[in-house]
Amino acid sequence: MKKALVTGGTGFVGSHVARLLVERGVAIRALARPNSRKDNLQNLDPRLCEIVAGDLNDPASLQQAIQGCDALYHVAADYRLWSPDPQELYKTNIEGTRALLQAALSAGVQTVVYTSTVGALGIPSDGTAGTEETPVSEAKMIGHYKRSKFLAEQEALSFVAKGLPVVVTNPSTPVGEQDIKPTPTGQIIVDFLNRKMPAYLDTGLNLVDVRDVAEGTLLAGERGKPGEKYILGNRNMTLKEILDTLAQITGIPAPKVQIPYPVAYLAVGAESLFVTKVLRRTPAHPFEGVKMAKYRMFFDASKAVRELGLPQSPIEEALQRAVAWYQANGYVRR
Predict the structure, then answer these.
(1) β-pair type (199-200, 71-74)
(2) CA separation (Å) from 25 to 18, 20, 50, 52?
(3) Which residues, in sequence order, are CB contacts of 330 under 8 Å at separation 6+?
């Protein structure tokens, strides 16, 4: 029986990857830090799902976890738009990836999929959708998270020359159930459900069903070419279109006021400065988020659709599942 190591299996995308592998009869090891919530791995067949303690910052634990595995799905990342110590993001996302892939190379793993992000890709200046080939540089990365993932992606691709068959996926903005933290996009949905979004910015995202991202991750392992990148995305939507869709699903009125970008920039910047420097707390609206919102994160996933067979499930269904999950799991005030 084949065995796969899944990092990030307790998280949003990783748990869907883990579940899909188990459903297809693949035995998995889910790497999890000792203090991680295990909710997302509940009800998986214990004969096929083994949760092992480990940390991307502990190379010895990675070497032990990879032993006997045929495949590696590296989904874990330090995904924060603000951190009191930004070096933590670089250590986990870059150095942790390097240590994990070195362990996989030494163990002779034959299938490796590294989950990056569209945040590490270029955005065309003319407003068209970005692709895997859109020119990009480290200087274009906004914030420590994007910069760390951009450098980690380069680190992952460097292992191809060493003989490790690394395929890179670049998920856009997954939506659906099991977003426990939640992600910044999930937080938008939660804020909408709690009526905490009186206005919106003129920005946009590429949304994709998280189940399609999991499917695309497995397809990348089966059909992807080592050294290649594949955008796992679906539909480009403005933030207003996303909020209008949520309004149709829930019956909650969508905000009608658009905030000018300079106003949002100054307001969030001042709030973030006060909360982080004076109150020394994590800001509810990280400044990096509003800086990213200046650009519409629109992308073209046709390469993954064509070469991998990436599904394109209706976004409305994914948003509906997300809403139902947040409501059922205590994220929404009555």
Answers:
(1) unpaired
(2) 11, 9, 13, 19
(3) none
pLDDT digits (tens, 9 = 90+) for 51-107: 999 999 999 999 999 999 999 999 999 998 778 889 999 999 999 999 999 999 999
Alpha-helix runs per DSSP H in the chain: 12-23, 59-66, 87-90, 96-107, 143-158, 184-193, 210-223, 239-250, 261-273, 287-292, 302-307, 315-328
Contact present, 208 and 171 (Cβ < 8 Å): yes
What is the pTM (predicted TM-score) of this model? 0.95
Distance from C-alpha of 108 to C-alpha of 97, rounded to nearest angstrom = 16
The separation between the first and the last C-alpha atoms of the chain, rounded to the nearest angstrom, is 47
Distance (Å) of CA 266 to CA 169, 272, 290: 35, 10, 10
Confidence check: pLDDT of 193 > 70: yes
pLDDT bin (cut points 50, 70, 90) of residue 287 is low
* Local confidence band at 284 (pLDDT 50, 70, 90 cut-offs): confident
How far is residue 122's CA from residue 260's CA, in Å, rounded to a whole number?
25
Q: Name the pairing type of β-strands 173-175 and 204-209.
A: parallel
**Separation between Cα atoms, residue 243 and residue 254, nearest integer Å:** 6
